[in-house]
Structure formats: structure tokens, C-alpha cells
DNA sequence: CGACATAGTCAAGCTACTTGACCATCCCGT
DNA sequence: ACGGGATGGTCAAGTAGCTTGACTATGTCG
């Protein structure tokens, strides 16, 4: 594998990732959820099961807890989540999704599924599964946030 | 394909992309080029063949020409590129890489090749080619800049 | 019970972008 | 040839999303 081929592969990967995020975001907006940034989606993914504290969210997103707290301010103000007292730790607060937050998370899943279906049309279902398998083995715990 | 599987694939793709960029950046720094952000690498790729104008660079990067101009200021100040008069258009300037800029671009290619070699160890050469083929067909002209 | 650790917030600062305004030069129809 | 709109580039100011630093409240452990 020549260096230039590695660059071509890298560029294709980054282009695909950028395209995916852009189209998911567009799909979420098209479903009626405005003022939502892609980063919010990653937060929703962490909050969805049972809620999370600000600190847990910060770790998940790879940012400081102050930044996570600001993000929570934002999604609370927009009605997607709410701060509740934490059962069993009076210092902490449990951030949970509101009904609208859940609806937005579902919208993001639908949008992602739509994009991936498009890939299936181009590649075929089998190759999409191969793709998923490859990626899962390469970077099972890669960073969610981009560094560029 | 269920929605949750689409999300898993999306997450794997973004994790891989994030990991790739982080490791290329680390590789470039390890080769002695400091103060270089990943965005600079995308600029280098556009400047490498024959140079480019600020406006062309802005289109390539998906930012305003003011932002591209600021980025050029930065890499000029750091010695990676220089502004030259444009042959045939007195309004424009041709931004070209310096020798150090070329060296940095080569370092990025080496770092990328190193990461991709790691993928080859995990997946096998054949599957890496399949991966590259899939990605190239999915988003041949996706955005270079992340939106999240 | 006292000392240190941890959850969260407030405040200020930084960086990489944006929008808006502007000048110099090019191109093209009259 | 020339006048007017398009284009290339820069300067200036504003913004969003992060950072670091300082602080309070609560938990944990010897």
C-alpha cells in the first residue's frame, strides 16, 4: 500500500463521515427539531438509557465538565432534557431526556437508518455488513468528537 | 437493517474517522512539525500540486475566504507556505508550499500510511481494499470538514 | 470529626470561525 | 475605449463552543 493510497483511503473515510453527519443533521431538522447540533445527538445517546450526570456526559463526549454543563443548559433551554435531583447523591444531578428529547433521538435514528439504506442501495446489504464489521474492529473505542 | 444497527454503524464510522485524524496528527507532531492542526493538512493537500489561490482553498475546505486567508496567514507565519504574485491575475495571489511545507505533507502521508497498515494487520490487506472501495463509492465528494 | 475528593457552577479568556465593509483588478457589452 | 458589474483579497468586528481557574456544596474515609 503506497502512501498516496493510504491518503486516498483516509480522505474517503473522512468524506463519508462528514457526509453522514451532515445528512443525519438535515434529517433531524427535516423532522421538525431545530437548534440541534450534531454534538447534541451524542449527548442524547448517553442520556437515553437512564439519564446521566454532567460529569459522565463530559467523559462520554470527551470535553470538560464545564462544557458539558453548558451543553446541558442548552438542551434544557430548548426542552430536550431536564435536570433532576440525583437519587443517592445530593451533589449530583441526573440529566434525563424529556418526551421531546426522546422524539428527537428517535428522529436521529431514523435519519441515520435512511442514510445507511442509501449505502445499501449502492453497495448491497452484504457489503454494508462487511463495512460495519471492518469499522467495528478498527476503532471500537475511538473518540466521538472530531479533532480537525 | 434496524435503526439501532444503523446507529451502531454510524458510531463506528465516526469513531474510526476521529481515531484516524488523531493518530495522523500525532504522527505529524512526532516527526517534528509543531503547531499544525489537522485542518492544515487538508489545505496542504490542495496546495501541493501547483499551489492555489485563497478562494480556491476556501472552496476546498468549505469555509469562507476570510477564514481561508487567516489559515494561510497562520501557515505562512509558521514557514509552511508563502504568498506569491499570481501569474496572469494581479488581484490574486498564488499560495505555494515551502520546502518545509512539502516535508510536512510527506510526514502526514507517512503517518496515514502507518495507521492504515495497522488496519491491514487487523483486517487483512484484501478487506482494507474492500473498505476503501466501499467508502469511495458512498461519498466520493463528501465534505472534508466535520459538522459536529 | 477533620481532611481530602468529587459534582457542579460561575466567570473569564481563547480560537477558529462568521458576517459586513472595503479596495484593487478583471471582464464584457456598448 | 470605457463604464459597470463580477471577482480576489484583506481588514475589522462579532459569535459559538470550547478552555482554564476559582469557588461552593456534598460525599468519603482515616
TrEMBL record, chains A, B:
Q: Which GO MF terms does the UniProt record name?
A: DNA-binding transcription factor activity
Q: Which SUPFAM superfamilies does this UniProt record tie to the protein?
A: Winged helix' DNA-binding domain
A single Gene Ontology biological process assigned to it is:
response to stress
- Source organism's superkingdom? Bacteria
Q: Which residues form the HTH marR-type domain?
A: 1-140
PROSITE patterns, per database record: HTH_MARR_2 (PS50995)
- Write down the Pfam families for this protein, in alphabetical order: MarR_2 (PF12802)
Q: PANTHER family attached here?
A: MARR FAMILY REGULATORY PROTEIN, TRANSCRIPTIONAL REGULATOR, MARR FAMILY
Name it: MarR family transcriptional regulator
Could you tell me which species this protein originates from? Answer: Streptomyces fuscichromogenes
Amino acid at each position: 500500500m503506497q502512501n498516496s493510497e493510504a491518503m486516498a483511503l483516509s480522505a474517503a473515510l473522512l468524506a463519508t463521515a462528514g457526509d453522514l453527519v451532515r445528512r443525519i443533521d438535515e434529517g433531524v431538522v427535516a423532522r421538525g427539531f431545530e437548534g440541534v447540533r450534531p454534538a447534541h445527538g451524542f449527548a442524547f445517546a448517553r442520556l437515553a438509557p437512564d439519564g446521566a450526570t454532567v460529569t459522565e456526559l463530559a467523559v462520554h463526549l470527551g470535553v470538560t465538565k464545564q462544557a458539558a454543563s453548558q451543553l446541558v443548559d442548552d438542551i434544557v433551554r430548548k426542552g430536550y432534557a431536564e435536570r433532576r435531583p440525583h437519587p443517592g447523591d445530593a451533589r449530583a444531578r441526573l440529566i434525563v431526556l424529556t418526551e421531546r428529547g426522546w422524539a428527537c433521538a428517535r428522529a436521529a435514528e431514523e435519519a441515520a437508518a435512511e442514510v445507511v439504506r442509501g449505502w445499501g442501495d449502492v453497495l448491497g446489504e452484504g457489503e454494508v455488513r462487511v463495512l460495519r464489521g471492518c469499522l467495528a474492529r478498527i476503532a471500537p473505542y475511538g473518540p466521538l468528537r472530531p479533532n480537525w
